[in-house]
Amino acid sequence: MTKPTEFLTQVEFETAACDFCGTEEAQVLFEGPDRLHRLPGVFRWVRCTNCGWLRQNPRPTRDTIAAFYPTEYEPYIKAVDDEPSLWHRWERRYGMLKRCRAVARYHPGGRLLDVGCATGNFMFEMKRLGGWEVRGIEPNEQAAAYARQRFGFDVHTGTLQDVNLPLSSFDVVTLWNVLEHLHTPRADLVQVHRLLKDGGMLVFSIPNLEGLGARLFGPLWLGWDLPRHVYLPSRRALIKSLNELGFAPEAVKCLSGSHSAFGISLQFYLEDRFSSSDWPRRLLKAYGSLPVRLVTGPLFWLLNQANLAPIITVFARKRSS
Predict the structure, then answer these.
(1) pLDDT tens-place string over residues 153-162
(2) Domains (ranges, CATH) in the chain?
(3) Which string of DSSP letters, residue by residue, matches 135-160?
(4) Which of 53, 87, 112, 120 places its Cα 20 to 30 Å from the Cα of 81?
């Protein structure tokens, strides 16, 4: 087993000014560990004193942060059809279909680029929907290879800044739970703007700082996900930045993910407050049961309707030149 000191020698850290306004000054919010995968280190969230964007600072460099993405990282999961559990297969497909139908409501078809496509499950469901030509970008070689081999998709290994794609060639660009992981989110959004046709749609999901989970759990909220999350915006800062970069925001919605995200935040809270007790484990097991899910379903539906769920999805259209 790798010791913490040995692990951290594989990671380089850097300090950085705000990517959106260039300001170095920032207010420290809090420090915390990697609660999701329990990898070594203590990390810090700060708020830019000028534009309000939150960032991790100091942070692992782009070349070494991959050490904090183990093979069991959730987005690197197999095809929905290969899921052995009928219930999990239905649950995963239902969530994907909500994304697909939401995209199709704003743009009925065309060429779609999925940035951070992981193992290709979203692209597969879009293809099944009909009327879509899909391509992907994925920095993890293992996940990209799976998408190519399992589904036959055209997936570029790398980042938006690495790949050479024709400008003004896509009708839709999606980033599902990706923007918060980027070291240069402003530059990446500028590149998305270049790749989209006039009137094309940018669709992305991001942790909801104004959601109930962030307010209820504070530093123990799943949405912080140190050290993998590098940037997070308030709703106001996000809309302002999109307008400045040539996008017209059309909608902000909560599509799904409330029950599981709330459960992980609850797990972090119980582990932090009651680490020596066994009853939190039993409570979490009950929380994940079907009866509890059915009972809490209406509550999480209401949170989605009120845009208070842990994740928001933003729909923004590229303004015509």
Answers:
(1) 999 999 998 8
(2) 4-68 (2.20.25), 80-256+312-318 (3.40.50.150)
(3) EEEES-HHHHHHHHHHH---EEES-T
(4) 112
